Amino acid sequence: MTEHIVHAPFPGTFYRRPDPDSDVFVTESQHVEAGTVIGLIEVMKMFQEITAEQPGTLVQFLVENDAPVDAGQPIARLT
Amino acid sequence: MPLEIRRPGLMTTVQDAGRSGGYHLGMPPSGAMDLFSYEVANLLVGNTDGQAALECTYLGPEIEFTEPVRIAVTGADLPARVNGTEIESWTAHDVAAGDVLSFDFLRSGARAYLGISGGIDVPSVFGSRSTYTLVGAGGFEGRALRAGDELKVGVTGPDRRAAARSVPAALRTTHPAQVELRVVVGLASYRVVPASLAAFFSTDWRVTSDANRVGYRYRGGGIDFVARTPPAGAGSDPANVVDIGYPVGSIQVPGGSEPIALLRDAVTGGGYATIATIISADIARAGQSRSNDVTRFVEVSLDEALTARREAADRLNRVRSALGFD
Question: What is the 3-state secondary structure (H, E, C) of A33-77?
Answer without folding.
Answer: CCCCEEEEEEECCEEEEEECCCCEEEEEECCCCCEEECCCCEEEE
